[in-house]
Amino acid sequence: MARVNLSKQHPAAYQGVLALNQEAEAAFARSGLDEKLAELVKIRVSQLNGCAFCLRMHTRDALNKGETTDRLAVVAAWWESQYFSEQERAALALAEDVTELPVPDRHERDNDVLTDEQISAVSWLAIVMNAWNRIAIRSGYPVGP
């Protein structure tokens, strides 16, 4: 099946996702979570979805916001490292739950580390990142050196 640039074929739908993205980003910012964590969530969701375009973009964004290469190198196996705080671990587990929709209790995240507002903010960010990954993958956005 041919790849079609979805944003060009249906620009109004693309603009709707863009508006949803802006709302999710604003909710995340209001939640009190670190902006670097937003990039880690986007990176982890993009890893799970296999979206090279979004991985490159959000890795660069994370580095520009002061994220370290060590933490970026292990985010794919965050649960095995000691690089992430309890709050970050809870947010990454939640992002995985939203992306993979696994059987309950795959990751321990119900430990009161995140507030209801933060749970909602991380969930919306992961939901919109899943949408962006699917747009980029289905559109065949080029990813070259």
Automatic annotation (TrEMBL):
InterPro entries recorded: AhpD-like, AhpD_core, CMD-like
SUPFAM superfamilies: AhpD-like
Pfam families: CMD
Annotated ranges, domain Carboxymuconolactone decarboxylase-like: 20-97
Protein name: Carboxymuconolactone decarboxylase family protein
Species whose genome carries this gene: [Mycobacterium] wendilense
